[in-house]
Specification:
The chain contains 29 helices and 41 strands. The chain is of the alpha+beta class. The strands form nine sheets. The protein has a 20-stranded antiparallel sheet, sandwiched between helices. Strands 2-1-9-8-5 form a five-stranded antiparallel sheet, with no helix packed on it.
Length: 961
């Protein structure tokens, strides 16, 4: 062979090596092999796939592969060893891979050229170690290999499934239902995505009145409420064909009448807050006697985790409503309140049309001023600062009243200020401020003259000693919330917000694929919004702004939605009309007497007192059972026969009529001839400190109370008592009118509770013990198969006591009950939690609280994994990316950090671990504000009373001194 031929052959070989995509495999003794990656297209549509044997040094057993890009314009790379994923594996784990099987690497690429990947491997329970280094060159050209494209999509989908195995995150829903079909894939099977906006109430919410407020406001979206078959048929017929829109004015709201407030006010002239003269009568209002009380309440609610009328809540998502409103209004707490607020500002009130603070609302703050000039100068200073941040400062006039405003294009800053003498109003919208001016000019009725408000002030008199904060939801305000204008308008607004969530998910995926911001036209043309792109129900136009945030020309953007009252609504669809008519039918069925204004009075301090009045109470509600049990009457609720080691006490006034109608009492009288006329009118179920075997949620107690009245049966109460007796030291006390007759009836009463005929599986045995301090003592054994429950009974003073332990009754006989600790209160029922008595119970309660923190934290992990691992979001951009996508900031409530563990490649929380391997601390961090609040509690009392006017509740939270 000539020299020229040899040189030509060498050159040809080099050219083939350069232009063919060759992968060199080799680390840790693995032999080098030349392979050719398969590709599909190039540029923005470039996909590649590498299939090669697992190296000989690959660990045996379950194996996870993690690719790391070292060089080249490649991204969204996945690696998987052959084998099927298991349901119980952690993120990234796959089943055992037999020796000699293959690994498949897929990814996207933009520019052709050299690329290098490092493949890391982790056996089950192990750590990541380098397995292989791949060097290859991606060629130019336009090769069509749809199977390569689909192979990448399948691995991408598998990655999402591993990050979110329950398919619980909205982005998972979006990708599986919109993007997967673009690649010829079926949506991955996910978890149940059904969402109930109205959960059953817990016991605490029932007794504080929070459940009643939830029922009264009826804030469920139109169409989410229960519907009868006939109503569903009517809605279905309304959507048949292409029906024409109809005028909103053709719909009528609920026909429930108002209370006869003029008659109820006769001879009464209540004092009302000064600022109520500036609040429209159809808006809610929150009055503060001192501006510092607003700060104290806000701090307390932050520590509690939300609404004080609900149990301490654990959340891992911060919507920052307080900060959002402060920034929007340009009213920073540190400037207007904490530094000099009480010297400049007297009284303060909040008011608005609706309670949708998280979504976006028209919100107004009204101040009475002590120093008008200083307030004006501070507002102007705040506005200048907002203008430096890009907002536009302007002046405006409303009916001759001049004001100043500063507004940004996205309404994150939207503040309008007007001074009316020594009163200032600052609102998030000009329309909201115009209503305040209309009231001041006597063109709209003020709340101060509203008869329902004035009557509520006779129930809760304005008194600085008893009141720091007063919240009122007026008759016209609640009537407006359930009107067709508001219900349909809010439903449309939330549908638009849902559409913008779809746009945000589409924008996120576009950025991951194309590595730049999209336009709306690109999202539609590229199929990122599915075959039927969303349309705003109010005919707004969608766009992606310069910050990459979806927005609507009518509804603005998520978290700062245009207030419902500012969106014109004149015509509606037949479906909306049918859904609203179904809502009105149900509403009129439940409220058959009067509409329901709500008043809440708050007193802050060492003991926090919250009193609620709801006029009247919904029929067919969670409270029906409690109403029946108490007979809608009140009694004296005392802590008689209560031991110091009691951790919870549920006391109630029992209606004699309800008692006589219970199946158990009727059966004892008719079948056994027992005369229970000695039963009194109050009962208490008490739990003592001790080691627990299982826990019963608050909803369980709430359901017991509900069923007790609905069935006119004692069975739920008896079952609840027996369940408690198996778990904690428990005692039931019942007031008796004749202690002698009650004591004589104990043996017959227990025998009558047994089976009427001989039963080898279930039996009841009753006998007496030796007297204690000269008083008879009875024991009853309930036997079911091999299980035996022993109860002790005796009459102590004027109480029949049935206990799960003998020492409970002997302690009561020895006079060890709490004495003089609290005064008797009038009411129908009362729930008391003695936090200072938690000794043995402290550990399981603390553990349970830590479990709630972990569960809350766990909800963040799927999206964190999707963004960090599957979409390549940098850790330092994670918080802002999720905030822009969802409107909240994710955080670990125990102070942990979200990260991809470099040793395992698994997304986890530094405190609570991963989805597949959760962990939690045994005790909480004492530095946590919420935990500090919980540990500071001494006692919590929640008392409710059913009155002819409605429901009255009192919540007292007593903190340790």
């Amino acid at each position: 062979m000539s020299r020229r031929t040899i040189i030509a052959f060498a050159v040809a070989t080099l050219l083939i090596g350069c232009f063919a995509a060759v992968a060199a495999v080799g680390t840790g003794g693995v032999s080098t092999a030349a392979i050719t990656p398969e590709i599909h297209r190039a540029g923005n549509e470039g996909y590649f796939r590498l299939v090669l044997p697992l190296p000989d040094n690959a660990p045996s057993g379950p194996l996870s592969l993690v690719p790391r890009v070292e060089e080249g314009d490649v991204y969204l790379v996945h690696a998987i060893a052959s084998g099927q994923a298991r349901e119980d594996q952690d993120e990234g784990e796959v089943a055992a891979v037999p020796h000699g099987r293959t690994m498949t690497i897929t990814g996207r690429f933009g520019k052709p050229g050299p690329a290098r990947l490092t493949i890391l491997a982790r056996p089950a329970g192990g750590v990541l170690k380098p397995l292989a280094s791949l060097r290859f060159k991606l060629p130019t050209g336009d090769v069509s290999r749809p199977d390569v494209r689909q192979s990448w999509a399948r691995q991408q989908q598998a990655g999402f499934q591993m990050a979110d195995p329950g398919d619980t995150d909205p982005f998972s829903h979006y990708w599986n239902r919109v993007i997967a079909p673009r690649y010829g894939l079926s949506p991955a099977a996910g978890g149940d995505t059904t969402r109930f906006r109205r959960d059953p109430p817990d016991l605490y919410s029932v007794f504080t009145g929070a459940a009643a407020i939830q029922e009264s406001l009826q804030l469920e979206l139109l169409g989410d409420s229960p519907q009868s078959p006939s109503q569903r048929d009517a809605i279905k017929k309304a959507t048949a064909g292409v029906p024409a829109d109809i005028p909103l004015a053709t719909l009528a709201g609920p026909s429930v009448k108002s209370h006869p407030f003029p008659e109820m006010l006769k001879g009464k002239n209540p004092t009302v807050p000064l600022l109520s003269a500036y609040v429209p009568a159809d808006q809610y209002a929150v009055f503060f006697t001192d501006i510092t009380k607003q700060l104290e309440l806000a701090d307390l609610m932050d520590e509690w985790g939300g609404n004080l009328l609900r149990q301490v809540e654990t959340s891992a998502r911060d919507f920052k409503v307080r900060e959002k409103l402060s920034r929007q209004l340009c009213l920073e707490n540190s400037l207007l309140t904490r530094m000099f607020g009480d010297r400049v500002i007297g009284d303060m009130a909040f008011t608005g049309n609706d309670p949708f603070l998280k979504e976006g609302t028209a919100f107004t703050v009204i101040f009475s001023l002590k120093d008008r000039d200083r307030f004006r100068k501070q507002i102007e200073k705040n506005y200048r600062e907002a203008a430096r941040q890009g907002a536009v400062r302007s002046e405006f006039t409303i009916d001759g009243h001049r004001g100043i405003a500063v507004v940004s294009a996205d309404r994150r800053i939207s503040s309008y200020t007007l001074l009316l003498g020594n009163v200032a109003a600052v609102a998030t919208s000009k329309e909201a401020l115009a209503r305040i001016v209309a009231v001041a000019d006597k063109r709209l009725p003020p709340l101060a003259q509203a008869e329902d408000f004035r009557y509520m002030r006779t129930i809760f008199p304005q008194n600085a000693g008893e009141e720091d904060i007063f919240i009122y939801l007026s008759d016209p305000h609640i009537r407006a919330l359930v009107s067709p204008r508001w219900k349909i308008g809010e439903a449309r607004r939330m549908r638009c917000a849902g559409n913008m969530t779809l746009l945000a998910n589409a924008r996120l995926w576009f950025r991951a694929e194309q590595r730049r911001e999209p336009t709306m036209a690109e999202l539609v043309a590229g199929g990122y919004l599915g075959p039927n792109p969303p349309h705003c129900p109010d005919h707004g136009e969608y766009a992606i702004d310069k910050k990459g945030e979806p927005c609507c020309s009518v509804h603005n953007r998520s978290g700062h939605l245009t207030p419902v009252g500012e969106i014109p609504l004149e015509r509606i669809t037949p479906r909306e009309a049918a859904e609203y008519k179904a809502f009105v039918e149900n509403y009129n069925r439940y409220w058959t007497q009067f509409f329901d204004p709500i008043g809440i009075r708050v007193k802050l301090g060492e003991t926090i007192r919250i009193q609620t009045c709801i006029l009247p109470l919904i029929e067919n509600s969670w409270y029906d059972g409690l109403v029946a049990l108490s007979g809608c009457t009140q009694g004296t609720l005392t802590e008689a026969a209560l031991l110091p080691r009691t951790v919870m006490s549920l006391r109630g006034h029992i209606s004699p009529d309800w008692l006589r109608k219970t199946e158990l009492v009727r059966a004892l009288r008719d079948r056994n001839g027992l005369d229970l006329g000695w039963l009194g009118d109050d009962v208490a179920l008490n739990l003592c400190d001790g080691q627990v075997l299982f826990t019963l949620g608050g909803q369980g107690f709430g359901m017991l109370g509900h069923d007790a009245g609905r069935t006119s049966s004692l069975e739920p109460l008896v079952i609840g008592y027996l369940a408690s007796a198996l778990n904690l030291p428990t005692y039931l006390t019942v007031k008796v009118t004749d202690p002698v007759k009650a004591e004589a009836s104990i043996p017959s009463l227990f025998r009558a509770l047994g089976p009427s005929s001989h039963d080898d599986e279930f039996g009841v045995e009753t006998y007496t013990l030796e007297n204690h301090r000269g008083k008879p003592f009875y024991v009853t054994n309930f036997s079911l198969f091999v299980v035996k429950l022993r109860l002790y009974a005796a009459v102590v003073d004027d109480r029949l006591v049935i206990a799960s332990r003998r020492d409970i009754i002997t302690d009561l006989m020895d006079g060890l009950a709490i004495k003089g600790k609290s005064s008797a209160q009038q009411g129908s029922m009362q729930l008391s939690v003695y936090r200072s008595a938690f000794k043995e119970l402290g550990e399981p309660v603390s553990l349970g609280y830590q479990e709630e923190l972990r569960h809350a934290c766990r909800k963040n992990l799927p999206l964190e994994a999707i963004m960090l691992k599957n979409l390549g979001v940098a850790p330092e951009q994670l918080e802002s990316s999720i905030s822009a996508l969802r409107g909240y900031t994710p955080y670990c409530p125990a102070g942990g950090r979200y990260l991809v563990d470099p040793s395992t490649g698994i997304t986890s929380c530094s405190v609570h671990g991963s989805l597949g391997r959760p962990r939690q601390p045994a005790v909480g961090d004492d530095r946590s504000p919420t935990l500090q609040l919980v540990n500071s509690l001494e006692k919590v009392d929640a008392r409710l009373a059913f009155t002819p006017e409605g429901l009255m509740t009192t919540l007292e939270i007593r903190r340790k001194r």
